[in-house]
């Protein structure tokens, strides 16, 4: 065993949150070691050449940015560009593929006409607009609190009331979001389009009483207070790359291919690097791995006994495709560039989403499979080589909903992956005027440019238990009245039962998505603790 090396902080996991924490602490003069198991930092927030011999760098696991605060970008001097998309969404009518709902952020009249074109009831567009305006009152109020010490529920609710968001608080936080959606909106198509933000990565129904769907919905609308989801120019790897640069420039040490094997009391971390077993110690250990993974490193069973939320299953399949060009649509009234310019919803009506949930809960892959598509290359072609750009190639990333981890096992993963890929392609083809398979580019080896990731694939690649993209169930961005806020770690939502070990990743309260908020808040807890009287 190599000899100990002391640091002020050791960060377990070099995902984007760990890099953010490292950058903040190193800028504050702390000696920081980051240990990353993979050959490169970034975790899920990376770009990759997914297809051998094809010069396209796709955002492989995470795609868009909404929750990364400008404050963090400014604090760390991140040189990143986030491009705004004109179109919010495109949703074909599954009962009539020749018509679809296009929400155009740049043309309110065109959006209103689109509501009428899909047969939405009179007043539906006004109700839709009013619904999101009310939601925005609450999100604009809560957004600044995510990079500040936690508020108790009553204080957060009072803040909402003072800003005129009391009704939105009740609708989004006190009661199942499905109640409000079904009350305010009438169209099955429109209701489903709205509900999807409550279900992405979360296996839930609209009316579930545990309100996981509400928390998911809130976070999808919370970013910047507006809920805009932007395209990271250069791909998601550009975001993690800048966080890595900021951390290294500030003096942090980042080791890749460093597999942490144990986190021990007293701030000791064992790991294997360069073929040697090593051990380092620090005043603080920040965990950027999922809480259930941290349990294992601490010699505990990863059963979620202390917090069942930590073992909540993921519920998605992810498919990356590289096409010769965008496909033709059954709906001839909309250009493909507009339809794919925002989030493309397929088979996601209110009734289809519920039927898909029930099918998956019964052990079957939903048919049709609800899917969402995102086309990075339309907004940012820089991820493609000049030759691919000139040829008109485009990337598509598909996120299939209601595919819970319970459907996948080590024994059936390969067959399930094949079946899920077929289900995704069938869902896409249901709204296209030509088979998507005919448009797939092929690599030099003759293989079509398509890759599919099940929840088990994601767990194996990234260490996310049960393929949960949030590292477990989401938590409200406030604490319940009476919950202790007596230490910096608790005030910042990063505490564990060991005062030297803090959560700095998506498993921290207010974690999830590409935000760097978990990393920021853990760093703030460390720095605040060191200012406390009596701190050694």
Content-based structural category: alpha/beta
What name does CATH use for the topology of the largest domain?
A: FAD/NAD(P)-binding domain
Shape: globular
Helical run tally: 19
Number of domains: 3
Beta-strand level of the residues, as a percent range?
15-25%
- At the first level of CATH, the class of the largest domain is Alpha Beta
Known CATH architecture of the largest domain: 3-Layer(bba) Sandwich
The profile of the biggest β sheet is: 7 strands, mixed
Distance between the termini: 28 Å
**Residue windows where pLDDT falls under 50 for at least 5 positions:** none
Query: Could you state the CATH homologous superfamily of the largest domain?
Result: FAD/NAD(P)-binding domain
Rounded mean pLDDT is: 96
What quaternary form is this? single chain
Q: What Rg is obtained from the alpha carbons, in whole angstroms?
A: 23 Å
Helix coverage percent: 25-40%
How many DSSP-defined strands?
18
């Amino acid at each position: 065993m190599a000899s100990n090396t002391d640091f002020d902080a050791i960060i377990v996991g070099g995902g984007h949150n760990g890099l953010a924490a490292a950058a903040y602490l190193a800028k504050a003069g702390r000696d920081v070691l980051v240990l990353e198991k993979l050959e490169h930092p970034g975790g899920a927030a990376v770009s990759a050449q997914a297809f051998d011999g094809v010069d396209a760098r796709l955002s492989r696991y995470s795609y868009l940015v909404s929750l990364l605060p400008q404050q963090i970008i400014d604090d760390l001097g991140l040189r990143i560009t986030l491009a705004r998309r004109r179109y919010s969404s495109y949703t074909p009518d599954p009962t009539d593929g020749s018509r679809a709902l296009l929400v155009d952020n740049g043309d309110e009249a065109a959006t209103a006409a689109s509501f009428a074109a899909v047969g939405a009831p009179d007043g539906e567009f006004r109700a839709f607009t009013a619904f999101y305006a009310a939601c925005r009152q609450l999100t604009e109020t809560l957004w600044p609190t995510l990079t500040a010490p936690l508020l108790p529920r009553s204080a957060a609710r009072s803040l909402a009331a003072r800003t005129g968001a009391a009704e939105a608080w009740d609708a989004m936080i006190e009661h199942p979001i499905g109640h409000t959606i079904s009350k305010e909106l009438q169209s099955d198509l429109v209701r489903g389009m709205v509900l999807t933000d409550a279900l992405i990565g979360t296996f839930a129904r609209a009316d579930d009483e545990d309100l996981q769907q509400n928390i998911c919905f809130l976070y999808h609308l919370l970013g910047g207070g507006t809920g805009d989801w932007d395209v990271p120019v250069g791909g998601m790897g550009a975001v993690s790359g800048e966080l890595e640069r900021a951390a290294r420039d500030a003096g942090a040490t980042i080791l890749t291919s460093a597999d942490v094997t144990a986190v021990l009391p007293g701030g000791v971390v064992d790991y294997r690097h360069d073929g040697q077993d090593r051990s380092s110690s620090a005043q603080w250990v920040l965990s950027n791995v999922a809480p259930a993974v941290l349990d294992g490193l601490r010699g505990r069973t990863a059963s979620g006994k202390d917090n069942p939320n930590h073992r909540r299953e993921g519920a998605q399949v992810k498919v990356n495709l590289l096409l010769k060009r965008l496909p033709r649509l059954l709906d001839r009234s909309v250009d493909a560039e507009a339809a794919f310019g925002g989030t493309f919803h397929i088979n996601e009506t209110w009734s289809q989403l519920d039927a898909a949930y029930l099918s998956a809960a019964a052990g079957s892959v939903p048919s049709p499979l609800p899917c969402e598509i995102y086309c990075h290359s339309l907004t940012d072609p820089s991820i493609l080589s000049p030759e691919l750009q000139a040829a008109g190639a485009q990337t598509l990333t598909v996120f299939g909903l209601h595919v819970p981890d319970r459907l996948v096992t080590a024994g059936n993963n390969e067959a399930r992956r094949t079946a899920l890929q077929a289900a995704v392609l069938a869902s896409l083809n249901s709204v296209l005027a030509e088979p998507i398979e005919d448009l797939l580019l092929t690599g030099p080896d003759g293989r079509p440019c398509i890759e599919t990731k099940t929840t088990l694939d994601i767990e194996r690649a990234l260490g996310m238990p049960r393929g949960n993209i949030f590292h477990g169930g989401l938590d409200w961005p406030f604490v319940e009245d009476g919950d202790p806020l007596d230490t910096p770690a608790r005030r910042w939502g990063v505490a564990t039962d060991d005062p030297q070990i803090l959560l700095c990743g998506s498993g921290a309260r207010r974690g999830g998505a590409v935000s760097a908020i978990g990393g920021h808040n853990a760093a703030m807890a460390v720095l605040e603790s060191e200012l406390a009287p009596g701190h050694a």
